Amino acid sequence: MATLLKLFPTCTWTGRLAHLSRKGWAQSRSGRLLPCFPASQRCASTTSYLTVEMDDNTGVAVVTMKSPPVNSLSLDFLTEFSISIEKLEMDRKCRGVILTSGLPKVFSAGLDIMEMYGKGPEHCAEFWRAVQEMWLKLYGSNMITIAAVNGSSPAGGCLMAMACDYRIMADNPKYSIGLNETLLGIVAPFWFKDTMMNTIGFRATELALQLGLLHNAPNALRVGLVDELVPEKEVLSAASTAISKWLAIPDHARQITKSMMRKPTIDRLLSHRDQDINNFVSFITKDSIQKSLQVYMERLKQRKT
Ligand SMILES: CCCCC/C=C\C/C=C\CCC/C=C/C(=O)SCCNC(=O)CCNC(=O)[C@H](O)C(C)(C)COP(=O)(O)OP(=O)(O)OC[C@H]1O[C@@H](n2cnc3c(N)ncnc32)[C@H](O)[C@@H]1OP(=O)(O)O
Prior knowledge:
Its EC number is 5.3.3.8. The chain has helices at residues 2-7, 75-90, 121-139, 156-162, 190-200, 202-211, 217-223, 235-247, 251-270, 273-284, 287-302, and strands at 11-13, 25-27, 33-35, 42-46, 50-55, 60-65, 96-101, 144-149, 153-154, 166-170, 176-178, 215-216, 228-230.
């Protein structure tokens, strides 16, 4: 019991912990010992920015992002996110993840601009490694990943959604999704571009990236950036329905196929990872780029007044 609490310090189990015995342990794919519960039990764990609710009956975990006001991807958020995905990956009961937002109107506002503004090279490098790690974990996941996009999802938020296997978006024309980096005076890195090209094709990506297009929900469906639009209240239930179709496919066949499709893109970043960090740091710390970020943040804040 003590070991269990060490492994999952913030975990609230709805099952009866006292009944765990040595035979209640199972070995994960990586050989780690993990607790194994009877089929009817659910587990919810909450960290600073995420809630992870695992349903042992279905093997599906719902990961809900909750970092007010807009789920921007700070260094701390990204670190927590990658650890949570890694934990689920190692839990052999977990076959699928639904990623959603617990905030109104926003799935994720993308990278936290304040992590890139006025920061020194060391911080920028650490931040960028965390961004890479989030993408590597999600894009390379063996699990089925469904994005339940229940709000706007610009830039890094769009990357997160594109890294999933399937995207369901709330049918609200006020919500938008896309890689809008050029509007901030910055450039989407090659692996953001590759992820989008793998999702919507070369020409649509070329247009979207140069113009920094943020597609509203109907346009996002039209270009294939999302796979389904559903009424806002039904985003999560539609994601559950969609994932059951994916769960019916034998895991090994689906996983090998997924890897075949995604490995070349992942390997490209892995083999240039340090160079990509250096590029980011020298680009983002330029005075002209810092000025662009400042102007963009000021405009964001002015929209309110
Ligand atoms: C050869 C050279 C190649 C070099 C290439 C190498 C490297 C590449 C270099 C750089 C790559 C960087 C890639 C960057 C990716 C990103 O993700 S950048 C982030 C882009 N995000 C956005 O543009 C979204 C901006 N936000 C919004 O549009 C809206 O906030 C919204 C998400 C639609 C939500 O709108 P609303 O509900 O109305 O909320 P508010 O606008 O009022 O926002 C509330 C507060 O949150 C602050 N905020 C919003 N977004 C961010 C953010 N991304 N980061 C930090 N803070 C954010 C906003 O300012 C408000 O703050 P206050 O309440 O006013 O304090």
